[in-house]
Amino acid sequence: MKTLDETYYVQALEAFIERCDQEQVTLAWIRAKMPSLLKAVRWPVSTAEVVSVVGVGSGKGIMDVDVLKLVQQECPENPLHCIGIEPNPDELARYKKTAAGEKDFALGSTTFEWHEKISEEFESLLPSRPDSRYHVIHMFQMLYHVRDMEETIQNYYNKLTEGGLMVITIASKDGNDLLKAFDDYESTIPNLHDLPAQNMKRYSDDVLPILRRMAILHHSETVSYQVDVSECFVDGSLAGKMLLDFICLTNATCVYQSLAESDRSALLNSMSKYCKAGIGEDDRGRRMLTLTFDCITFYKGKHAQSVCNGVA
Ligand SMILES: C[S@@+](CC[C@H](N)C(=O)[O-])C[C@H]1O[C@@H](n2cnc3c(N)ncnc32)[C@H](O)[C@@H]1O
Fold first, then answer.
1. Which InterPro entries does this one have (predicted)?
2. pLDDT the model gives residue 252
3. Pocket around ligand 1: residues whose beta carbon is below 6 Å from it?
4. What number does the ligand 1 atom closest to the CA of 250 have?
């Protein structure tokens, strides 16, 4: 899939993260929901066996570190091995720094293996690790970037342990006001749907049919968060431009590299119709938009059926 220039992408991602509560909302979901999801994983019987966790597209690793702490609580006596896959060197460096600062991981029984790679490169290494199996594999907000979602999901699913857990978060179409704004705007663009398929934005709606084709029993939950888009309406604001570019990359139906000035005004017009005034202490009077993502979870193999039936 087309992406922005790598350095600019990270700056634009930062502009987005600073103005939205997606990180906090994701961490809140992890802390509220993952403990019970992890309870149902089929962990190794022996406490001497290594428990392995893989994060794909880890970014700066905040979700990875949180998940790992919960896994550690679940299997306090097992050694943990954590694999982080992240192509951006700056993001990976931040992940390493965060992990090094975590006193919970300094006990010597937690090891890390970092891969400065895109997922596809790591996936191509999997056949050379025939004995490796992973108990938890997560992909937080990253499936937009892989060449072929189905291949990637299949490759990792094959490497899950029997009874292992996979967690995917990806944008949802449900209750997504930004998507409605894009729908309005894009309805004014002629020939939009003649664009090549790889330029189409990905949503959870694209993941669920893949899981159905793979006959994977799964659970999906929609979570909403807010983004403060006020800066996008400020003429000449670099942060506003980066925010809008990131939003276009990750939320438009069609992926735009960057918007021409006339398109930018048309999109802003559509967005303003869906903005609500912020009500929180820090965002009173700001222009807020609601976005949503789905948290999709499933287990490998027969175990999935037992968990659904409550007998795991
Ligand atoms: C939206 S960020 C999510 C980061 C992190 N998972 C989180 O939730 O905070 C997407 C991440 O995927 C990484 N990425 C981009 N293309 C990738 C690919 N083909 N394989 C793996 N990661 C990729 C980006 O560098 C970025 O760090």
1. SAM-dependent_MTases_sf (IPR029063)
2. 64
3. 56-59, 62-63, 85-88, 91, 118-120, 140-142, 145-146
4. 1
Amino acid at 203: Y
pLDDT band at 76 (very low <50, low <70, confident <90, very high): very high
pLDDT surpasses 60 at 255: no
Domain-wise residue ranges, the chain: 6-308
How does residue 285 score in pLDDT terms, banded at 50, 70 and 90? confident
In this structure, the residue with its CA closest to atom 15 of ligand 1 is 145
Distance 86 CA to ligand 1 centre (A): 6
246 vs 147: which has the higher pLDDT: 147
Pocket test for ligand 1, best of 145, 148, 249 (most atoms within 8 A of CB): 145
Q: Name, in order, each residue with C-beta under 8 angstroms of 137's C-beta and a sequence gap of 6 or more.
A: 53, 54, 56, 156, 159, 160, 164, 165, 166, 167
Q: Which two tokens stand for residue 119?
A: 């997922």
Q: How far apart are CA 88 and CA 300, in angstroms?
A: 30
